[in-house]
């Protein structure tokens, strides 16, 4: 069988994670911030003359790590008044959404790779606001921006001593990391009636350090001495069946008609 596509057993909706946000002291200051594009990324400024000493101090802190600031702000249910900052926050939202779709996240942690293809980047370029230096935002600019946001994630996640699930829950309780289980759409060449099939795999960290998708039956061997971890892993099947009742967990691939693939 040849794998055609894989889908994590549980996906995260960014709209959900904006329902019950934690409060931050910088909320009012964020409404006074402005930004403009630059060849290196973006630069921040303040557009309000009625500033307190506390505002100035916080602004100086933000200038030290502007990408860290944007990364943290993406977990909150608030928006900027400045159009450039609204666009940048939307990009970070896309990054976190992609990150949380990675079934290997719990294994690879801060080393999880996140990327966007050219079509996705071109679609983002269409959303660039009509402001000064907007022409600077091309695919190379976006790639560099996401690299810096990724550095913010790596630095922050590396300090997490618990699971990635607990890391994101602390960021926002509405966030959910994906299960290790994946449903693979595979080609079933030996069955003309059902040329496609679904097969359940799970992500497993190999001795080389790389993460691979292995048949679900392997978990019975890997966790035979750890029943709690085994039950936790298999609970993803119940979650999937609640979303898609047609899925039959018989332990073997099940058929899929060609016109429904």
Give an overview in words.
The chain is of the alpha+beta class and 261 residues long. Helix content is 39%, strand content 17%. It has helices spanning 27-30, 53-64, 66-73, 83-99, 105-108, 118-125, 139-158, 164-171, 218-222, 227-243; strands spanning 2-8, 33-38, 41-46, 181-187, 196-205, 211-215, 254-256. Strands 1, 4, 5, 6 and 7 form a five-stranded antiparallel β-sheet that branches. Strands 2-3 form a two-stranded antiparallel sheet. A hairpin with a 2-residue loop joins strand 2 (33-38) and strand 3. Helix 3 (66-73) packs across helix 7.
Brief summary of the model shown:
The protein has 261 residues and is an alpha+beta fold. It has helices at 27-30, 53-64, 66-73, 83-99, 105-108, 118-125, 139-158, 164-171, 218-222, 227-243, and strands spanning 2-8, 33-38, 41-46, 181-187, 196-205, 211-215, 254-256.
Pick out its properties.
261 residues; alpha+beta; 5-stranded antiparallel beta sheet; two-stranded antiparallel ribbon; disordered N terminus
List the helices and strands and how they pair.
Blueprint: E1 2-8, H1 27-30, E2 33-38, E3 41-46, H2 53-64, H3 66-73, H4 83-99, H5 105-108, H6 118-125, H7 139-158, H8 164-171, E4 181-187, E5 196-205, E6 211-215, H9 218-222, H10 227-243, E7 254-256
Antiparallel strand pairs: 1-4, 2-3, 4-5, 5-6, 5-7
Helix pairs in contact: 3-7
């Amino acid at each position: 069988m040849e794998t055609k596509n894989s889908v994590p057993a549980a996906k995260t909706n960014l709209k959900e994670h904006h329902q019950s946000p934690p409060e931050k002291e910088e909320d009012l200051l964020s409404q006074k911030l402005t930004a403009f594009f630059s060849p290196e990324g973006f630069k921040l400024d303040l557009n309000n003359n009625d500033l307190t000493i506390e505002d100035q101090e916080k602004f100086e802190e933000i200038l030290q790590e502007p990408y860290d600031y944007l990364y943290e702000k993406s977990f909150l249910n608030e928006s900027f008044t400045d159009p450039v900052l609204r666009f940048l926050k939307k990009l970070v939202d896309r990054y976190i959404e992609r990150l949380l779709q990675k079934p290997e996240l719990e294994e690879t942690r801060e080393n999880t790779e996140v990327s966007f293809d050219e079509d996705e980047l071109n679609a983002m370029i269409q959303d660039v606001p009509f402001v000064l230096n907007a022409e600077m935002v091309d695919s190379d600019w976006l790639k560099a921006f996401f690299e810096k946001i990724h550095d913010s994630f790596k630095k922050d996640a590396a300090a997490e001593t618990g699971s990635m699930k607990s890391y994101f829950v602390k960021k926002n309780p509405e966030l959910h990391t994906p299960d290790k289980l994946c449903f693979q759409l595979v080609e079933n060449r030996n069955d003309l009636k059902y040329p496609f099939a679904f097969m359940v795999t799970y992500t497993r960290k190999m001795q080389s350090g790389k993460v691979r998708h292995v048949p679900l039956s392997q978990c019975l061997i890997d966790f035979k001495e750890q029943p709690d971890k085994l039950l936790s892993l298999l609970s993803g099947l119940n979650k999937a069946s609640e979303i898609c009742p047609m899925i039959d967990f018989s332990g073997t691939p099940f058929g899929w008609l060609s016109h429904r693939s």
